[in-house]
Amino acid sequence: MMIRSALHKLFLFAIILLAAVLTWAQEQATPAAPAIQPSDTLTTDSLRTDSLAADTVKKKGGDADTLVTYSASEIDFDVVRRVSVLTGAAVITYKDMRLDAERIEVDWDRQVLTATGMTDTMYKDSLMTEMDTILVKGRPHFLQGKDEFYGDEIAYNLKTKVGRVRGGTTQYEDGYYYGEQFKRVDEDVITVKGGNFTTCDEDTPHYHFAAKELKVIVGKRVIARPVILCFEDVPVLAAPYGVFP
Question: Which letter does DSSP use for residue 41 in this model?
Fold first, then answer.
């Protein structure tokens, strides 16, 4: 009986040992599950089309956010260049500034507005075979506070508040100014290249002073270098420079 009991215990021990060995072998043969890697994907809003509102843009800078408001018959936006082109009765307002023209280009990165008119051809016949007149439609008009300019081309920097007018006209107090190029260099200082000025309010002034360069200090004086006095477009007197009044 003792021998049979010992054999029975030995048999049970062998079975338990065999089961343990088989379990260990199975664990060694099963490969470990690979680590989960993050997927290489973009969320739906990672790539977003650059766009601007149709009529208002919020410009940050200065003391507070300021709205640039614009309108036109047609508005195109170049996403790559970040440039808007307003065509047809275009108007842009910013703070106390207003710019009107047939065509205005807005460079949002440089914050520069460039306004021009557009040619409009009139024909003598309905078949459009003979031109009669070529007109400039929507000549640029700039208004800011007491400053008002008309020109063939007007450019204005929203950030620096420096403007340039080509082929322009303006009026300060009792004086009328014409020139190839106007440029504001300070709040009350404007330079004019290839310009002339007069106090005569006729469409064709009876007299004017012509100069290669004018420096207009608003409300104080005009400095011209060199200066030529003309009557009915006839030069009668020249000087290296002149200070008026």
Answer: -
C-alpha distance across the termini of the chain, in Å: 142
**Which residues fall within 8 angstroms of residue 63, CB to CB, at 6 or more apart?**
none
Type of residue numbered 190: I
DSSP 8-state code for residue 31: P
* Phi-psi label, residue 138: left if phi above 0, alpha if psi -120 to 50, beta otherwise: left
pTM surpassing 0.70? no
Q: Mean pLDDT in runs of 10 for the chain (245 residues)?
A: 48 51 47 37 32 50 66 94 95 94 96 91 61 76 90 93 90 87 86 92 89 90 93 92 86
If you write DSSP's letter for every residue of 92-109 in order, what string do you get?
A: EEETTEEEEEEEEEEETT
- Please tell me the number of Cα atoms within 13 Å of 67 on its side-chain side: 6
